[in-house]
Please model this.
Amino acid sequence: MLVIGLMSGTSYDAVDAAAAGLRLDGGTLVLRPLGMVSTPYDDGLRAALSAALPPASLPLAEVCRLDTGIGRAFAAAAVHADRELCGGRAELVASHGQTVFHWVADGRVHGTLQLGQPAWIAEATGLPVVADFRARDVAAGGQGAPLVSLFDLLWLRGRPGRPVALNIGGIANLTAPDGTAFDTGPGCALLDAAVREFSGGRLAYDADGALAARGRADRGLLERLLTEPYYALPTPKTTGKELFHAGYLRASGLLDGVRPEDALATLTELTARTVADAVRSVGATEVIASGGGMRNPVLAGTLRRLLAGVPLRASDELGLPAAAKEAYAFAVLGFLTAHGLPGTDPRSTGARHARVLGSLTPGSTGFPSPPPPHRAPERLVVEAPAGTRGPDSAP
Model:
């Protein structure tokens, strides 16, 4: 099956569309990456989305407009990916949507909301769409995150030692071989929020970590930030911009009387420290990393220093582009749903049972009904695209 995975994470800067050729070979799911195209949100939509995120409140009329705008943006990205990456032959779209609220209270997730109505995608492409992946896991008692955990477990199964998959987006998360998976805390969320505050909205992020590189971490402020209760919560656990946002920075005092460069150096150290602590807590022998945070050389370098002896490798070395991993993961989850197979591991999300995820929106000819395989895949192998020689991703 040729599947397009659509993803926009907690940095909400663009819609990533990755195309994957997927097939089941016995107990192995084989993924052939066909490339990714990234479509930035237009300025108006991005500003509206930024204004809607916690701690803001929003009238229902604005929620409706935002849902439509995001749905159209996802639809445009899917059309582009089908044309550019699939030659118009895609068979299914798997859309994560845009998370605008993840309702966490008393250590439990009570609800989750992703905007981007999939009907716009189905109408624009004519393809069936799987969307709204997180809600079913939440309804089954799970955290609804990190949903890439099943992908990680299948992908790294059989690799020697205790490899840990790490993704650094707006929020950072990891998956360990025993199924332990959780959000470690902020990835780039607080860094991006600080840059927007210090620049008066002119800048969205610290490109290449250049500002942080000119600063010095404030150790006293760092230790105060590390007292955040989230870090000490037991797993499974999840968090988001409902906690880590500009208001959080204001309350911490980091925006008052601190040089911007020093504030960003402190926040870079915070992200790297909380990730490194989480990696050590699961006994990792190697870290396979992906996500936009890996494009920040200062953050990646700080993390390497703090990991001290635990190798940090980009997922590209195993044949999976770091910038596209989450989009590929949702392509896999859509494929599993289309085949009636569960997309979660209860050890990772805390759900009562593994569940088939998502809601289905028919395409112009309905929804595909492939015969369900007799068993779920036990491992995932990334296959080099035809005509290329890539790294051997099989352990």
Remarks:
- Confidence is low (pLDDT under 50) at residues 387-395.
- The longest strand covers residues 92-105.
- The two ends are 24 Å apart (CA to CA).
- DSSP finds 13 helices and 13 strands in the chain.
